Amino acid sequence: MSVSRQELENYIGQYLRVSLFRDYCPNGIQVEGRASIQRIATAVTASLAAIEAAHAIGADALLVHHGYFWKGEAAPITGTKKARIARLISTDINLFAYHLPLDAHPDVGNNATLGQILGARTVGQFGEQNLAWIGEFDAPVTLRQLGARLHSMLEREPLLIGDLDKPLRRIGWCTGGAQSFFHEAATLDIDCFVTGEASEFVTHTARESGVAFVAAGHHATERGGVRALGAHLAEHFGLDVTHLDIPNPV
Ligand SMILES: [Zn+2]
User: Which superkingdom heads the taxonomic lineage of this protein's source (predicted)?
Assistant: First the structure.
């Protein structure tokens, strides 16, 4: 089966409700390639390695969470940015990128898929554009147990800050680089906040508030969304979809 580039962009745009978000990058086609799409490669980031891997499997489109053209970045197409875009154009591969809409989607989003891994029942949201989620455990787990679960499910050892034996009942989370949400999270009625990356201040905020902090990996926590979206597109359009896991310890 195949789908036109435009039909695919229209469908994903509606499915992820792209128009509802104020984002820091364009969501949708970022670099135009061939008009007809049969095979899609998914990856967290549109790195040169992901482009080469997509080309190697004969992909017509590369679908990612982290694309290009971020607000505030230098506009000139030079250096690594030039090399990536030149390779996409020379291979005629379409680049589709979805950032906040893919974090937030209730079924295939990064937060939804991380929530399944955490094993928490979603009960609320907070933070800028309601991007962070709150959940409850039916049976409390300790920080140590939660760390072991994340380690095995995400195949990366998380950084745990807090009392490892304290039972956790309510938890907040937001995938990726959402450590700045910890200020607000620590004022809410939660026992732990999970995101991808850590900054120096989180140690002190965790100690002083008693709310534990977990950095489970930016890449590791954001593999779920693009994979789940790819699986959805494979089923909806009958397309051939392959996930490319380009290792990243951050
Ligand atoms: Zn991210």
Answer: Bacteria
Positions at the binding site for a divalent metal cation? 65-66, 103, 218, 222
Q: Residue 195 and residue 215: Cα distance in Å, rounded?
A: 5
CA pair distance 75, 85, nearest whole angstrom = 13
Q: Give dist(CA 154, CA 133) in Å, integer.
A: 19
**How confident is the model over 74-89, as pLDDT tens digits?**
999 999 999 999 999 9
**Residue 26 Cα to ligand 1 middle (Å):** 14
Tell me which architecture the domain covering 110-221 has in CATH. 3-Layer(aba) Sandwich (3.40)
What are the residue ranges spanned by the domains of the chain? 3-103, 110-221
CATH no., domain 3-103? 3.40.1390.30
Q: How far is the CA of 220 from the centre of ligand 1 (A)?
A: 10
Average pLDDT over the chain, rounded to whole? Answer: 97
- For the record, the structure tokens of 28 come out as 């949708």
